[in-house]
Design brief:
2 domains; 5 helices; alpha+beta; signal; eight-stranded antiparallel sheet; Pathogenesis-related Protein p14a; two-stranded antiparallel sheet
């Protein structure tokens, strides 16, 4: 709130409609855009109202699209819990079933080395701004927090002993 008052006080001399020859509407319109841009820029983060992608990969991306986006995987392995293949890359892993991505996983070491992107926005889980970005968890489990946006789920795994984040998954919430 103090920021708004400061901005308005700094801009108030510019809003004086004294003996000017310009049209007052032409003077005020650009200033309103400047104030709204400054107020938006002052916000530290944005609430994510959807989960479109993790590490640059969306759910239901086809196998062909995955290969175009990420290239040849370092390794392809059978997922031990699901009946799918896991395409393992340096920065993430993707579960592929029937030619489509059904989950995306990023481990902490991958995020530290390559960054963690949700919807193309760089996230730093260690800085504890996740509540601001994600809101209240839909479900809190022993091993982590689950956030839902429609049918899409984002789970942040936590070490039960330390509370440190232990991985993040993007998946179809209806499939779990």
């Amino acid at each position: 709130m103090n920021m708004i008052i400061l901005l308005l006080s700094l801009l108030s001399p510019m809003l004086d409609a004294g003996p000017q020859k310009q049209d007052s509407a032409a003077v005020l319109a650009p200033q309103a855009q400047v104030v709204s841009s400054l107020l938006y820029a002052a916000r530290p983060t944005t609430y994510l109202d959807s989960f479109d992608s993790l590490a640059g990969v969306s759910l239901n991306t086809t196998q062909e699209e995955l290969l175009l986006i990420k290239g040849t995987p370092l390794h392809i392995a059978q997922d031990p819990w699901l009946d799918c293949l896991e395409y393992q890359y340096e920065d993430m892993s993707a579960g592929v079933y029937a030619g489509q991505v059904i989950y995306v996983h990023v481990a902490p070491v991958q995020a530290r080395l390559y960054g963690l992107l949700i919807n193309g926005i760089k996230i730093e889980p260690e800085k504890d701004i996740l509540r601001e970005l994600l809101g209240t968890p839909y479900f809190v489990a022993e091993d982590g927090d689950v956030y839902m946006r429609g049918n899409v789920a984002l789970k942040i795994y936590r070490n039960p002993a330390t509370g440190a984040w232990d991985g993040i998954d993007l998946f179809d919430g209806n499939s779990s």
